[in-house]
């Protein structure tokens, strides 16, 4: 296959670029971002507003697939980017310009400028709250602890996010058990939590969240030097794609 422009990536920004500029894309992963991620402001796609990144990602993937812009119908094992060609799953695509949003499956010839966020991880602790109800809560911050933000979904689901180093990940003080303890203390002191009555003599139930899983996402990023044929998109460039699209596409 020969193309003028090709996008390589699986981020929301790569899909948004494919959608808004009608460019072909090689999806390096078919997995949507974790449901907890949200935009600062809702993203409008085809007249519909999306707050959750995973919902917008799924819609964009569907649209670009229906347009015939997704080059690979199946997931990739790996991808190698050469000067003017891409090899993946025993296929080759030649291009004049590649727009690169790499992930761990991407191997490329570009010179490395620097590596940032080494040994730094985004940590997501997912909890469920039996018996009690947090439907009147939205987000929270807990003072004097490692948790950056707590989000509440529906009546029972609680998600804590934090950024930890490799060393902190191996310490009990930063464990999912400590996340649960911090959240439990917060909920006990929040009057908006619905706490059923056990009995007239025993009073109301105390909120006791249960940890379902801990998700650890490496934040390490390799920053490459762009070339005439390949443009690398760093975090600033990716953010600019979202901002530019949002300025030009609103629900109003």
| Rg over C-alpha atoms, rounded to the nearest angstrom | 22 Å
Task: State the total count of DSSP E strands.
Answer: 18
Task: Let me know the average pLDDT.
Answer: 92
SSE arrangement, N to C:
EHEEEHEEEEEEEEEHHEEEEEH
Q: Name the shape in a single word.
A: elongated
Strand content: 35-45%
Enumerate the spans where pLDDT stays under 50 for 5 or more consecutive residues.
none
* Name of the CATH first level of the largest domain: Alpha Beta
Tell me briefly what this model is.
This protein has five helices and 18 strands.
Could you characterize the architecture of this molecule?
The chain is α+β, with helices and mostly antiparallel strands and 252 residues long. It is built from 5 helices and 18 strands. Strands 1, 2, 5, 6, 7, 8 and 18 form a 7-stranded mixed sheet that branches. Helix 1 (12-21) runs parallel beside helix 2. It is elongated, with a radius of gyration of 22 Å.
Features of the shown structure:
FAD/NAD(P)-binding domain, seven-stranded mixed β-sheet, 2 domains, five-stranded antiparallel β-sheet, alpha+beta
Strands, helices and their partners?
Layout: E1 2-9, H1 12-21, E2 24-27, E3 38-45, E4 48-52, H2 53-66, E5 79-81, E6 85-88, E7 91-100, E8 106-108, E9 112-116, E10 120-128, E11 139-140, E12 149-153, E13 157-165, H3 166-169, H4 176-188, E14 197-199, E15 203-204, E16 210-218, E17 221-224, E18 230-232, H5 235-248
Parallel strand pairs: 1-2, 1-7, 5-8, 7-18
Antiparallel strand pairs: 3-4, 5-6, 6-7, 9-17, 10-13, 10-16, 11-12, 12-13, 14-15
């Amino acid at each position: 296959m020969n193309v003028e422009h090709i996008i390589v990536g699986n981020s929301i920004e790569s899909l948004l670029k494919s959608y808004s500029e009608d460019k072909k894309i090689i999806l390096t992963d078919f997995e949507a971002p974790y449901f907890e991620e949200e935009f600062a402001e809702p993203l409008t796609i085809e007249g519909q507003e999306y707050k959750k990144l995973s919902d917008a990602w799924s819609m964009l993937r569907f649209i670009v697939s229906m347009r015939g812009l997704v080059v690979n119908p199946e997931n990739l094992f790996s991808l190698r980017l050469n000067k003017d060609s891409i090899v993946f799953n025993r296929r080759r695509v030649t291009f004049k310009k590649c727009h690169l949003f790499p992930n761990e499956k991407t191997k490329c010839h570009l010179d490395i400028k620097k590596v940032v966020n080494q040994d730094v991880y985004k940590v997501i602790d997912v909890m469920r709250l039996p018996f009690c109800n947090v439907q009147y809560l939205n987000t929270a911050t807990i003072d004097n602890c490692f948790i950056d933000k707590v989000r509440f979904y529906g009546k029972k689901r609680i998600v804590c996010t934090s950024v930890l180093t490799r060393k902190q990940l191996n310490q009990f003080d930063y464990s999912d058990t400590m996340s649960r303890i911090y959240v439990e203390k917060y909920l006990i002191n929040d009057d908006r939590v619905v706490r059923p009555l056990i009995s007239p003599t025993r009073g109301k139930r105390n909120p006791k969240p249960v940890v379902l899983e801990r998700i650890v996402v490496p934040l390490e990023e390799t920053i490459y030097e762009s070339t005439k044929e390949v443009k690398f998109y760093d975090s600033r460039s990716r953010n600019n794609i979202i901002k530019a699209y949002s300025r030009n596409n609103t629900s109003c």
